[in-house]
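SAMPLE LOG
Freezer: B-3
Tube label: C17
Construct: single chain, 488 aa
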Amino acid sequence: MKKRLAVLSVCSVLSISLLAGVQADKPKAEAEQEHYVLAYKGKLPTNFTAKIEQAGGKVERVVEEIGIVEAASSNQDFLSKISQDTNIQSAGRELEAYLETDPDDAIQFTPGTPNGQKVTLDPNAPSYWDKQWDMQRLTHDGDSYKLNDGNHDTVVAVIDTGIDFSHPDLKDNADLAGSRTFVPGTTDAWDKNGHGTHVAGSIAANGKVKGVGPGLTVRAYRVFGATGGAQQSWITDAIVAAANDGVEVINMSIGGWRWMAHNLGEKGDSASMVAYQRAIQFAIQKGVTVVVSAGNDSKDLNNLHDMQAYWKATYGIDIKGPSRVVPAQIPGVITVSSSNEWSDKSIAFYSNYGNAIDVAGPGGDNGPLYDSLYRQNPAGNYLDKRDYTYRTLSTYPSYPVGGGNATTQFTDGQWHGYSYLHGTSMAAPKVAGVAGVIKSAHPEYSPAQVAAAIRQSAIDFGKVGVDPLYGAGEANIYNFLAKDTVKK
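STRUCTURE (predicted):
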């Protein structure tokens, strides 16, 4: 059975879906190899490899610390056979994540303003700070940098598409030697897409654009190639590896709809869900603060009816049980919705929301005109009403990449490595940067203490107190540092 996974198409987010496709009519000799996640009870048994081979499979990846194994098999009976192993808690087909882009990017170079003008930057400008509304707000116009801009001993792991380590705004802060790839067939963590470099710049850029902590170190844990998706086990392996490497913060700009595991397996949570939960808990127990994006589906994460209707309308599939979004609804993470430049009452039109939201981060949007039209009729076509200057400007690979997300034109017509993007993918790294600077000031803080500090220092947007849109409010590093007794 060949797996065919649905793709969520809302701007710049790493989306995960777990729709299995229909079986193709092919001769048995052409049976395609499937990948599976096996979640064992406790430690891996000494004979797990032999058991997998006896069931007709082959071990592809082992994450020993949390008892997770990725196996491959072309045997249609493999899953039923291996599930009979009493040492296994859960087994299932492996889920896959895909990197999303704006749907029109492949058709035309995206316009930048409602009048059709492209967003243009001067490559000779000494700084683009005047265009970073998001950083201005997060840092109180740069005042936080004078108090604490992070330090190189504090590492933020970027589990994403990689990083452009040669970028002039990142080369001093990006840890090439410590970075790793988990994509089979690749040997390095260089970014071939663009998404990860934009995320990394939001955390620690120090040049024409600034990140929240321009003194922090960012390290790439690459789980996405130039094209295609990332298997669940690659992401799981990256989380565990980053925790073992001693990073202080993990950023995962990853989101997407998943059914609750008991809809997929007879033994409880699905193997992929177990793997995700174990990996994140492993990281937290190692003292790592994990920051994740809420997702870009414009949905209430806590409204089961809303989610069921979304799946039915979008994919024609009836979900009979609970549903959750991962990693946004996994316990222990800091879940980030996306705020915008022009409103303190309404989050970005695409952002998920609900009780799972801890805080918001400025992820940008298409401006108030587009927002008003979208909210009147989400199905309408308002592409010519977008204003990209309301998105967030950050680093982008300084070499051409195939991701299709470059939204910025330069006056000399050359490629200079900056782009306007929006999404909860852009919101989460702002909060990860805040977490990194807090850890720089207080390396003794536990993940729970970091999360509490972020919530307590947030700007209270939306309804007074905690609300489903902003959580505790929009994260703000200056608010924390201004009241902190420990200075850099």
